[in-house]
Amino acid sequence: MNITVWNEFRHEQRNDKVKAIYPQGIHAVLASFLQEENHHVTTATLDEAQHGLTDEVLNKTDVLLWWGHIAHDEVDDAIVQKVQQRVLDGMGLIVLHSGHFSKIFKTLMGTSCDLKWREATDKERLWVVDPSHPIAAGIGEYVELENEEMYGEHFDIPAPDELIFVSWFTGGEVFRSGVTYKRGNGKIFYFRPGHETYPTYHNEQIQTILKNAVQWAAPVKRERPVYGNAQPLETLKGE
Amino acid sequence: MNITVWNEFRHEQRNDKVKAIYPQGIHAVLASFLQEENHHVTTATLDEAQHGLTDEVLNKTDVLLWWGHIAHDEVDDAIVQKVQQRVLDGMGLIVLHSGHFSKIFKTLMGTSCDLKWREATDKERLWVVDPSHPIAAGIGEYVELENEEMYGEHFDIPAPDELIFVSWFTGGEVFRSGVTYKRGNGKIFYFRPGHETYPTYHNEQIQTILKNAVQWAAPVKRERPVYGNAQPLETLKGE
Amino acid sequence: MNITVWNEFRHEQRNDKVKAIYPQGIHAVLASFLQEENHHVTTATLDEAQHGLTDEVLNKTDVLLWWGHIAHDEVDDAIVQKVQQRVLDGMGLIVLHSGHFSKIFKTLMGTSCDLKWREATDKERLWVVDPSHPIAAGIGEYVELENEEMYGEHFDIPAPDELIFVSWFTGGEVFRSGVTYKRGNGKIFYFRPGHETYPTYHNEQIQTILKNAVQWAAPVKRERPVYGNAQPLETLKGE
Amino acid sequence: MNITVWNEFRHEQRNDKVKAIYPQGIHAVLASFLQEENHHVTTATLDEAQHGLTDEVLNKTDVLLWWGHIAHDEVDDAIVQKVQQRVLDGMGLIVLHSGHFSKIFKTLMGTSCDLKWREATDKERLWVVDPSHPIAAGIGEYVELENEEMYGEHFDIPAPDELIFVSWFTGGEVFRSGVTYKRGNGKIFYFRPGHETYPTYHNEQIQTILKNAVQWAAPVKRERPVYGNAQPLETLKGE
């Protein structure tokens, strides 16, 4: 599969703490472990021309990962529209952590995608609530992250097609942390963890989940549906 | 409840066939039978200032019905955004027939909302597939409409939260005709029938369904969720 | 509406702590606050003839509440089957707390309905994750129960039709605490809290949720679907 | 994968028309095309000891297909319970056509699984309503079966987790023909077509769908959840 990892790539260039964890950027770490699965993985970032998401790149992408945070507004609406169209055409999309507020996620959800948050000393424990789901393959009953940003309910998303993970936080909150949606011919997985100041994407269980998610989000090979004016397939009245 | 019936109101002024069926407009007929339920019903149309959807009107509307077709593009984006916000805040929304292609429905769904269609001599039979749903109260196993425009699958909508009606058409097609969604604090019902050249909204069973839908879509009375930075409810580590 | 509150009624007669909280039984407290809504409420208990669930009682019951724990096995299979049939025919069913392991709930779910549990000093906080749901009307962002038995995931239930509440527990667990299902013409609400040694059903917010649930679970008034051999509604080939 | 195809295998031995289509039994045809995918496929039939479903067979089966019709009642309850347990433990289950009334399907659904039916000259057209689903891979907008038994709504099943196919029938009915469920760690696909007097399982598109379904239903490799009394993962009050 052709995987494209998109990253805003701003924190890593400005903040020493983040740089220490992700010296080449969050996208480099994501790309690195996804390559282990023999996917063809490339990266794209906000400050490239067309954010690195040219028609050529998008058209050959099977699954796109999206990490963004402080510069959602800088993403060109025209590119957002192209990504949306590609999802409707079948491309998988994996939206990570603060990507909940990205234009592409909000556009595909139709809601505010707002939530509670806190940068403090919370522990996160992600419980598997759908043990039959391939995205949970190889994962124990829960994944524990010693330090993560808290995201709390209410998370203003449509009722997910599937709810795979629910998070517990020290401070008393819960969160629907791993949710799937289908839109058109494409599949979407939102996955909560991944705050830039913690080494979350270095965690092997988190890597397993994302490897699984990429497989799950693979486009289905079939002709796209035909829309518009349609001739009858059966004889109508008076014919 | 305060119900607002929004109608594009163009066909009825241009096309004699439509005018004959809906002399005062589709909105007038919708308003008329909804008033029988002791709701406070008002109407709003495209060519009024702000399409009749001022802040004052929207803020007091509990459930909004939406019929549009040939002038979706003339609906002001700013009004669409306000309607979306009101739905997220709890207002019910009932989208009718060709309203599947309205800006507000596409915005709330995140998909193309495209479909197959045909104006011919199809009969439509709407089968109840969720007999437990209050929107189907008082309705038999199916509703038969001797003449209706055909809408066929694939209907490019998110998987509905609830599927209540599935239509059969003479020409060999099927369609998910009555579907519900929740978005934020609001509820949405899309209902397929209602082509302007047929007397569909004069049909008593269709009227029953829409009366039920208005009740179902009523806003829930509660404080809206709080979003943003949140203090912990429990003691964090190191505190 | 005619409400029947069914209770095993064993703990209250054996355990002084439980008796102190529910001197007339859990059913008496449930019945008491439901009566405030002008429902006609009766009770039935395990040790009555036919567990108090005669055909006459069942046939006129609109919504049945079910609390059981230590004597699930003593419930007659024939009665379970009748209750199942009544749910399929439209009766609402509200299953409470340890009722997750009742024969009727397991029969309607088709799964083990197993879970993790702990009687200790956990606090429970039930977060509303579906703010549009009528069962959450009048409820704040969460309900806090200072002491409750812990139930933890994985909860072996089918993916709920609707997920309304998710619980946080002190000990590090989460739980899908308020879930809805439809089965046939009937609606089911499972609600987690209600351990016999805590005064949970005296809590006003819990009472509000159960009052809402009873309204939501009300049977839909319509003819039941017809099954079996069916004549064609349209002309078949060769006719 | 280890696939077991279970067949009642009665019609084929009694009815010449069925025998002509499936001389070695429906199971032989199903096994034959599934073997093309390099699965290890075995068959089992009602009249074998333990219906061919010994513990050894069940325990190594990854996906079980089930075709039954006139002898549902002859299936031993103890075997049904073992199959249910295997599904909850992760085994995939594909229920075919008249298997809607099998003990195992009714047990896993919790409903009557009843429907309308007619043996006549209906054509069936199965429309894909979820183009993103892997079970629809390689399938066009619809599959047309020139002759099939009619099954019509209301189909008394729980709201499916996913709805993939909706059927149109000549006689005026519709049907939810391809639906998925998860139960415990296992996945279930119900697929409507396959009446014994028609060569449905010789149809290449039907074969493609079933090949896809087997892949989709594959068990997830992970430790099963732990249930029962649980120690806290965090420090409780007063500890």
UniProtKB/TrEMBL annotation, chains A, B, C, D:
Pfam families: ThuA (PF06283). It comes from the Bacteria. Residues 3-217 form the ThuA-like domain. InterPro entries: Class_I_gatase-like, ThuA-like, Trehalose_catabolism_ThuA_prok. This is Trehalose utilization protein ThuA. The lineage of its organism: Bacteria, Bacillati, Bacillota, Bacilli, Bacillales.
